[in-house]
Sequence to fold (343 residues):
Amino acid sequence: MTDEAADMSDEKKVENVIIVGGGPAGYTAALYTARANLEPLVFEGFHWGGQLQNTTDVENYPGYPDGIMGPEMMTQFRAQAERFGTRFVTDDVDRIELSDGGVQKVYLGDEEHLAKTVILAMGAEPRRLGVPGEMELGGRGVSTCGVCDGAFFKGQKVLVIGCGDSAMEDSIFISKYADDLTVVNRRDEFRASKIMQDRAKEQSNIDFKTPFVVDEFVAGEDGKLSLVRLRNAETGETEDVVAEGAFIAIGHLPKSEIVMGQVETDESGYVVTVPDSTRTNLAGVFAVGDLVDHTYRQAVTAAGTGCMGALDAEWYLRDTPPSPEAHWMPGGEPAEIAPAPGG
Fold:
Protein backbone atom coordinates (compact mmCIF):
# COMPACT_ATOMS: atom_id res chain seq x y z
CA MET A 1 0.00 0.00 0.00
CA THR A 2 1.26 3.49 -0.80
CA ASP A 3 1.68 6.23 1.83
CA GLU A 4 -1.39 7.91 0.37
CA ALA A 5 -3.48 4.78 0.95
CA ALA A 6 -2.16 4.41 4.48
CA ASP A 7 -2.95 8.02 5.36
CA MET A 8 -6.48 7.89 3.97
CA SER A 9 -7.29 4.55 5.60
CA ASP A 10 -7.00 6.32 8.98
CA GLU A 11 -9.69 8.82 8.00
CA LYS A 12 -12.05 6.80 5.87
CA LYS A 13 -12.46 3.13 5.07
CA VAL A 14 -10.47 2.02 2.05
CA GLU A 15 -11.90 -1.11 0.45
CA ASN A 16 -9.59 -3.87 -0.67
CA VAL A 17 -11.35 -4.07 -4.01
CA ILE A 18 -14.22 -2.33 -5.75
CA ILE A 19 -15.74 -3.99 -8.79
CA VAL A 20 -17.62 -1.80 -11.26
CA GLY A 21 -20.06 -3.85 -13.30
CA GLY A 22 -22.47 -6.70 -12.73
CA GLY A 23 -22.25 -9.19 -15.60
CA PRO A 24 -20.54 -12.60 -15.80
CA ALA A 25 -17.10 -10.99 -15.47
CA GLY A 26 -17.97 -8.75 -12.54
CA TYR A 27 -19.82 -11.46 -10.61
CA THR A 28 -17.03 -13.99 -11.14
CA ALA A 29 -14.47 -11.46 -9.94
CA ALA A 30 -16.68 -10.87 -6.91
CA LEU A 31 -16.91 -14.59 -6.20
CA TYR A 32 -13.15 -15.08 -6.28
CA THR A 33 -12.25 -11.98 -4.30
CA ALA A 34 -14.93 -12.79 -1.71
CA ARG A 35 -13.58 -16.31 -1.25
CA ALA A 36 -10.13 -14.74 -0.78
CA ASN A 37 -11.60 -12.76 2.16
CA LEU A 38 -11.13 -9.43 0.37
CA GLU A 39 -14.76 -8.39 1.08
CA PRO A 40 -15.43 -6.92 -2.38
CA LEU A 41 -17.84 -4.07 -2.94
CA VAL A 42 -19.66 -4.35 -6.27
CA PHE A 43 -21.38 -1.48 -8.02
CA GLU A 44 -23.51 -3.61 -10.31
CA GLY A 45 -25.64 -0.86 -11.85
CA PHE A 46 -29.40 -0.59 -12.24
CA HIS A 47 -29.31 -2.93 -15.23
CA TRP A 48 -27.29 -5.62 -13.46
CA GLY A 49 -26.56 -8.90 -15.15
CA GLY A 50 -25.10 -7.49 -18.34
CA GLN A 51 -26.28 -8.57 -21.77
CA LEU A 52 -27.49 -11.92 -20.43
CA GLN A 53 -30.41 -10.11 -18.80
CA ASN A 54 -31.75 -9.66 -22.33
CA THR A 55 -31.03 -13.25 -23.38
CA THR A 56 -33.54 -16.09 -23.33
CA ASP A 57 -32.11 -19.62 -23.52
CA VAL A 58 -28.39 -20.04 -22.82
CA GLU A 59 -27.30 -23.46 -24.04
CA ASN A 60 -23.56 -22.99 -24.51
CA TYR A 61 -22.42 -22.37 -20.92
CA PRO A 62 -20.81 -25.44 -19.32
CA GLY A 63 -22.71 -27.05 -16.46
CA TYR A 64 -26.23 -26.42 -17.78
CA PRO A 65 -27.05 -29.49 -19.92
CA ASP A 66 -30.68 -28.44 -20.32
CA GLY A 67 -29.87 -24.77 -20.87
CA ILE A 68 -30.89 -21.87 -18.66
CA MET A 69 -32.54 -18.50 -19.07
CA GLY A 70 -30.05 -15.63 -19.13
CA PRO A 71 -31.61 -13.68 -16.22
CA GLU A 72 -31.79 -16.84 -14.11
CA MET A 73 -28.11 -17.56 -14.76
CA MET A 74 -27.12 -14.06 -13.68
CA THR A 75 -29.25 -14.36 -10.54
CA GLN A 76 -27.35 -17.55 -9.68
CA PHE A 77 -23.97 -15.91 -10.38
CA ARG A 78 -24.94 -13.04 -8.10
CA ALA A 79 -26.24 -15.28 -5.32
CA GLN A 80 -23.07 -17.36 -5.33
CA ALA A 81 -20.89 -14.26 -4.94
CA GLU A 82 -23.18 -12.92 -2.21
CA ARG A 83 -22.94 -16.22 -0.31
CA PHE A 84 -19.26 -15.53 0.37
CA GLY A 85 -19.77 -11.98 1.57
CA THR A 86 -19.89 -9.80 -1.52
CA ARG A 87 -21.67 -6.50 -0.93
CA PHE A 88 -23.75 -5.12 -3.79
CA VAL A 89 -24.84 -1.60 -4.64
CA THR A 90 -27.55 -1.62 -7.32
CA ASP A 91 -26.78 1.82 -8.65
CA ASP A 92 -24.85 3.33 -11.54
CA VAL A 93 -21.46 4.86 -10.82
CA ASP A 94 -21.29 8.55 -11.72
CA ARG A 95 -17.54 9.06 -11.72
CA ILE A 96 -14.30 7.16 -11.27
CA GLU A 97 -10.95 8.73 -10.43
CA LEU A 98 -8.09 6.34 -11.02
CA SER A 99 -4.49 6.63 -9.88
CA ASP A 100 -1.30 4.74 -10.66
CA GLY A 101 -0.71 2.70 -7.52
CA GLY A 102 -2.60 5.04 -5.19
CA VAL A 103 -6.10 5.11 -3.79
CA GLN A 104 -8.83 4.53 -6.38
CA LYS A 105 -11.99 6.61 -6.04
CA VAL A 106 -15.51 5.66 -7.14
CA TYR A 107 -18.41 8.09 -6.81
CA LEU A 108 -22.17 7.78 -6.55
CA GLY A 109 -23.13 11.39 -6.89
CA ASP A 110 -21.05 13.12 -4.18
CA GLU A 111 -20.68 9.90 -2.19
CA GLU A 112 -17.04 8.85 -2.36
CA HIS A 113 -15.85 5.24 -2.08
CA LEU A 114 -12.15 4.46 -1.79
CA ALA A 115 -10.29 1.28 -2.73
CA LYS A 116 -6.79 -0.10 -2.98
CA THR A 117 -7.75 -1.85 -6.24
CA VAL A 118 -10.50 -1.50 -8.82
CA ILE A 119 -11.70 -4.15 -11.26
CA LEU A 120 -13.43 -2.56 -14.24
CA ALA A 121 -16.17 -4.84 -15.58
CA MET A 122 -18.60 -2.45 -17.27
CA GLY A 123 -18.90 -4.62 -20.36
CA ALA A 124 -20.01 -3.59 -23.82
CA GLU A 125 -23.32 -3.21 -25.56
CA PRO A 126 -24.34 -4.04 -29.13
CA ARG A 127 -24.81 -1.19 -31.53
CA ARG A 128 -28.48 -0.81 -32.33
CA LEU A 129 -30.36 0.11 -35.47
CA GLY A 130 -32.90 2.18 -33.55
CA VAL A 131 -35.92 0.95 -35.50
CA PRO A 132 -39.39 -0.15 -34.33
CA GLY A 133 -39.60 -3.71 -33.04
CA GLU A 134 -35.86 -4.06 -32.44
CA MET A 135 -35.99 -4.01 -28.66
CA GLU A 136 -39.49 -5.44 -28.32
CA LEU A 137 -38.56 -8.58 -30.28
CA GLY A 138 -35.20 -9.09 -28.60
CA GLY A 139 -35.05 -12.80 -27.69
CA ARG A 140 -38.11 -13.45 -29.86
CA GLY A 141 -36.41 -13.58 -33.22
CA VAL A 142 -34.14 -10.53 -33.07
CA SER A 143 -30.64 -11.17 -31.73
CA THR A 144 -27.22 -9.52 -31.56
CA CYS A 145 -25.18 -12.72 -31.08
CA GLY A 146 -24.96 -15.30 -33.85
CA VAL A 147 -22.80 -17.69 -31.85
CA CYS A 148 -25.22 -17.52 -28.92
CA ASP A 149 -28.49 -17.92 -30.78
CA GLY A 150 -27.76 -19.27 -34.28
CA ALA A 151 -28.57 -22.87 -33.37
CA PHE A 152 -32.14 -21.89 -32.43
CA PHE A 153 -32.95 -21.22 -36.09
CA LYS A 154 -32.37 -24.63 -37.59
CA GLY A 155 -34.19 -25.00 -40.90
CA GLN A 156 -35.51 -21.44 -40.81
CA LYS A 157 -35.12 -18.24 -42.81
CA VAL A 158 -32.79 -15.67 -41.29
CA LEU A 159 -31.46 -12.19 -42.05
CA VAL A 160 -28.10 -10.83 -40.91
CA ILE A 161 -27.77 -7.04 -40.92
CA GLY A 162 -24.26 -5.69 -41.25
CA CYS A 163 -21.28 -5.21 -43.54
CA GLY A 164 -18.14 -5.99 -41.55
CA ASP A 165 -16.23 -9.08 -40.50
CA SER A 166 -18.63 -9.65 -37.60
CA ALA A 167 -21.56 -9.87 -40.02
CA MET A 168 -19.67 -12.34 -42.21
CA GLU A 169 -18.60 -14.45 -39.23
CA ASP A 170 -22.14 -14.54 -37.87
CA SER A 171 -23.51 -15.42 -41.31
CA ILE A 172 -21.10 -18.30 -41.81
CA PHE A 173 -21.87 -19.69 -38.35
CA ILE A 174 -25.65 -19.33 -38.63
CA SER A 175 -25.65 -20.82 -42.14
CA LYS A 176 -24.83 -24.18 -40.53
CA TYR A 177 -28.36 -24.17 -39.12
CA ALA A 178 -30.56 -21.88 -41.22
CA ASP A 179 -31.90 -23.10 -44.54
CA ASP A 180 -31.96 -19.63 -46.08
CA LEU A 181 -29.78 -16.71 -44.92
CA THR A 182 -29.64 -13.23 -46.41
CA VAL A 183 -27.05 -10.59 -45.53
CA VAL A 184 -28.55 -7.10 -45.69
CA ASN A 185 -26.36 -4.02 -46.18
CA ARG A 186 -27.18 -0.40 -46.95
CA ARG A 187 -24.36 -0.18 -49.52
CA ASP A 188 -23.35 -2.38 -52.43
CA GLU A 189 -19.86 -2.66 -50.96
CA PHE A 190 -18.97 -4.43 -47.72
CA ARG A 191 -16.35 -3.39 -45.16
CA ALA A 192 -15.50 -6.99 -44.34
CA SER A 193 -12.10 -8.32 -45.36
CA LYS A 194 -12.00 -10.04 -48.75
CA ILE A 195 -11.25 -13.41 -47.21
CA MET A 196 -14.33 -13.20 -44.98
CA GLN A 197 -16.53 -12.09 -47.87
CA ASP A 198 -15.23 -14.95 -50.00
CA ARG A 199 -15.93 -17.47 -47.26
CA ALA A 200 -19.49 -16.21 -46.90
CA LYS A 201 -20.07 -16.28 -50.66
CA GLU A 202 -18.90 -19.87 -50.77
CA GLN A 203 -21.88 -20.93 -48.65
CA SER A 204 -24.70 -22.08 -50.93
CA ASN A 205 -27.44 -20.88 -48.57
CA ILE A 206 -26.13 -17.33 -48.09
CA ASP A 207 -27.42 -14.52 -50.34
CA PHE A 208 -26.71 -10.77 -50.26
CA LYS A 209 -29.28 -7.99 -50.48
CA THR A 210 -28.09 -4.43 -51.17
CA PRO A 211 -28.58 -1.49 -50.88
CA PHE A 212 -31.24 -1.96 -48.21
CA VAL A 213 -31.79 -0.78 -44.64
CA VAL A 214 -34.17 -2.11 -41.99
CA ASP A 215 -37.22 0.05 -41.36
CA GLU A 216 -39.03 -2.22 -38.90
CA PHE A 217 -39.15 -5.65 -37.31
CA VAL A 218 -42.72 -6.97 -37.32
CA ALA A 219 -44.18 -9.58 -34.97
CA GLY A 220 -46.60 -12.30 -35.95
CA GLU A 221 -49.67 -13.44 -34.04
CA ASP A 222 -47.48 -15.53 -31.73
CA GLY A 223 -45.52 -12.45 -30.66
CA LYS A 224 -42.35 -13.58 -32.43
CA LEU A 225 -40.62 -12.06 -35.43
CA SER A 226 -42.47 -12.85 -38.66
CA LEU A 227 -41.13 -10.36 -41.18
CA VAL A 228 -38.61 -7.57 -41.65
CA ARG A 229 -39.57 -4.40 -43.48
CA LEU A 230 -36.68 -3.27 -45.68
CA ARG A 231 -36.23 -0.01 -47.54
CA ASN A 232 -34.11 0.51 -50.63
CA ALA A 233 -31.49 3.07 -49.60
CA GLU A 234 -31.46 4.57 -53.12
CA THR A 235 -35.07 4.48 -54.31
CA GLY A 236 -36.89 4.59 -50.96
CA GLU A 237 -39.14 1.69 -51.96
CA THR A 238 -40.07 -0.72 -49.15
CA GLU A 239 -40.23 -4.47 -49.22
CA ASP A 240 -41.44 -6.99 -46.63
CA VAL A 241 -39.22 -10.05 -46.20
CA VAL A 242 -40.48 -13.07 -44.29
CA ALA A 243 -37.98 -14.19 -41.65
CA GLU A 244 -38.05 -16.10 -38.39
CA GLY A 245 -34.75 -14.67 -37.25
CA ALA A 246 -32.78 -11.43 -37.67
CA PHE A 247 -29.25 -10.88 -36.38
CA ILE A 248 -27.92 -7.36 -35.95
CA ALA A 249 -24.15 -7.44 -36.51
CA ILE A 250 -23.03 -3.83 -36.70
CA GLY A 251 -20.50 -3.88 -33.87
CA HIS A 252 -20.32 -3.25 -30.13
CA LEU A 253 -19.65 -0.24 -27.94
CA PRO A 254 -17.45 -0.80 -24.87
CA LYS A 255 -18.76 1.04 -21.83
CA SER A 256 -15.47 2.78 -21.18
CA GLU A 257 -16.59 6.42 -21.28
CA ILE A 258 -16.33 6.76 -17.50
CA VAL A 259 -12.60 5.90 -17.53
CA MET A 260 -11.69 7.30 -20.95
CA GLY A 261 -8.49 9.32 -20.77
CA GLN A 262 -7.43 7.63 -17.52
CA VAL A 263 -6.58 4.12 -18.69
CA GLU A 264 -5.12 3.04 -21.99
CA THR A 265 -7.80 2.27 -24.60
CA ASP A 266 -7.62 1.25 -28.23
CA GLU A 267 -9.11 3.17 -31.14
CA SER A 268 -12.50 1.50 -30.59
CA GLY A 269 -12.60 2.36 -26.88
CA TYR A 270 -11.79 -1.08 -25.48
CA VAL A 271 -9.57 -0.97 -22.39
CA VAL A 272 -6.09 -2.30 -23.15
CA THR A 273 -4.50 -4.78 -20.74
CA VAL A 274 -1.03 -6.27 -20.42
CA PRO A 275 -0.99 -9.48 -22.50
CA ASP A 276 -1.91 -12.61 -20.53
CA SER A 277 -3.22 -10.56 -17.62
CA THR A 278 -5.96 -8.10 -16.67
CA ARG A 279 -3.56 -5.32 -15.61
CA THR A 280 -4.08 -1.93 -17.19
CA ASN A 281 -1.45 0.79 -17.56
CA LEU A 282 -2.31 1.89 -13.99
CA ALA A 283 -1.04 -0.16 -11.05
CA GLY A 284 -3.97 -1.44 -9.00
CA VAL A 285 -6.49 -1.05 -11.83
CA PHE A 286 -7.67 -4.17 -13.66
CA ALA A 287 -10.13 -4.65 -16.53
CA VAL A 288 -12.13 -7.74 -17.45
CA GLY A 289 -14.93 -9.08 -19.65
CA ASP A 290 -16.36 -7.48 -22.76
CA LEU A 291 -14.81 -4.16 -21.75
CA VAL A 292 -11.52 -5.57 -23.05
CA ASP A 293 -12.74 -8.30 -25.44
CA HIS A 294 -13.80 -7.36 -28.96
CA THR A 295 -13.21 -10.89 -30.29
CA TYR A 296 -15.08 -13.56 -28.33
CA ARG A 297 -17.72 -11.75 -26.25
CA GLN A 298 -19.10 -14.90 -24.63
CA ALA A 299 -20.35 -15.38 -21.09
CA VAL A 300 -17.80 -18.12 -20.46
CA THR A 301 -14.85 -16.02 -21.64
CA ALA A 302 -16.08 -13.03 -19.63
CA ALA A 303 -16.31 -15.19 -16.52
CA GLY A 304 -12.80 -16.49 -17.20
CA THR A 305 -11.32 -13.00 -17.29
CA GLY A 306 -13.31 -12.14 -14.17
CA CYS A 307 -11.44 -14.92 -12.40
CA MET A 308 -8.15 -13.60 -13.78
CA GLY A 309 -8.93 -10.08 -12.61
CA ALA A 310 -9.71 -11.29 -9.10
CA LEU A 311 -6.46 -13.25 -8.89
CA ASP A 312 -4.45 -10.34 -10.29
CA ALA A 313 -5.98 -8.02 -7.69
CA GLU A 314 -5.34 -10.52 -4.90
CA TRP A 315 -1.68 -10.90 -5.91
CA TYR A 316 -1.31 -7.13 -6.19
CA LEU A 317 -2.64 -6.64 -2.67
CA ARG A 318 -0.53 -9.43 -1.24
CA ASP A 319 2.79 -8.53 -2.85
CA THR A 320 4.68 -5.27 -3.22
CA PRO A 321 3.27 -3.57 -6.33
CA PRO A 322 5.76 -2.97 -9.15
CA SER A 323 7.15 0.54 -9.35
CA PRO A 324 5.72 2.87 -12.00
CA GLU A 325 8.96 2.51 -13.95
CA ALA A 326 8.44 -1.26 -14.12
CA HIS A 327 4.79 -0.96 -15.09
CA TRP A 328 3.36 -0.80 -18.57
CA MET A 329 3.26 2.80 -19.69
CA PRO A 330 0.63 4.11 -22.18
CA GLY A 331 1.64 3.52 -25.77
CA GLY A 332 4.58 1.36 -24.74
CA GLU A 333 5.38 -2.32 -24.60
CA PRO A 334 4.81 -4.51 -21.53
CA ALA A 335 7.73 -4.22 -19.16
CA GLU A 336 9.30 -7.15 -17.40
CA ILE A 337 7.18 -7.83 -14.33
CA ALA A 338 7.76 -10.65 -11.91
CA PRO A 339 5.41 -13.56 -12.68
CA ALA A 340 2.54 -14.28 -10.36
CA PRO A 341 2.86 -17.26 -8.04
CA GLY A 342 2.34 -20.46 -9.97
CA GLY A 343 2.76 -18.59 -13.27
Summary: DSSP finds seven helices and 19 strands in the chain. Residues 322-343 have pLDDT under 50 and may be disordered. The first strand starts at residue 14 and ends at 20.
